[in-house]
Design a protein that fits this description.
about 210 residues; about 0% strand; Arc Repressor Mutant, subunit A; Tetracycline Repressor, domain 2; mainly alpha; elongated
């Protein structure tokens, strides 16, 4: 009886721990973006969260581990969306056009632009955050897209080539125009028509280059 009574209590405790962890990550993300990686301290985040530094350390053993968790949370939903989008056997052209459009929407959003600026500004002094970001974002997107392209090549929907290099090419074309302008501060925002134009340009060039 006591064991049965303890199970809901344990579940609630674990739920509170997860909620607390998510709250820490949310505060840390804002703190990193506002102050930069170098100026962010575990003490500062603990104060912003409203707990002790010991409590923060019990969740995350280092600033690097906390930054990694921030990136995990920031990219998780989009990774799931892209996995769902790049379904094996789906129409190649329609899927790649949808990928380009959705990818550009994501990388030109205000939170993504802020995160990219942070990485570019700090990675020279802290290469570990560049590596964390690379593994969580560019490398993951390249792998997921490359797997889809590989299957399309195997099935004759695209000309045979190196699927990973093909994925890198398509991603680079998606990033070239408005995303680059946003990072450099030359424009403040991108509207739906501009996103559509960038997506069409990238997809059209890619599909012509890899036409079977």
């Amino acid at each position: 009886m006591n064991m049965d009574e303890d199970k809901p209590l344990l579940s609630r405790r674990e739920a509170r721990k997860l909620d607390r962890r998510d709250a820490i990550i949310g505060v840390a993300r804002s703190y990193f973006l506002q102050h930069g990686y170098a100026a962010t301290t575990m003490s500062g985040i603990a104060a912003a969260v409203g707990g002790s530094k010991a409590t923060l350390w019990s969740y995350f053993p280092s600033k690097e581990a906390l930054f990694e968790a921030v990136l995990d949370q920031a990219t998780l939903d989009f990774r799931r969306e892209i996995i769902s989008l790049l379904k094996p056997g789906s129409d190649v052209e329609a899927t790649l056009r949808s990928f380009c459009r959705r990818f550009i929407e994501k990388v030109t959003s205000a939170p993504s632009v802020s995160l990219h600026r942070l990485i570019h500004a700090e990675a020279g002094r802290f290469p570990e955050i560049g590596e964390i970001f690379y593994q969580r974002a560019p490398n993951t997107m390249t792998r997921l897209l490359g797997d889809f392209i590989d299957m399309a090549m195997e099935q004759g929907g695209l000309r045979r080539g190196d699927p990973r290099q093909a994925a890198k090419l398509l991603i680079a074309m998606c990033l070239y125009n408005n995303h680059q302008q946003l990072l450099l501060g030359r424009i403040d925002l991108v509207d739906a028509a501009q996103i559509e134009a960038d997506a069409d340009m990238a997809a059209n060039v890619f599909l012509r280059a890899y036409a079977p």
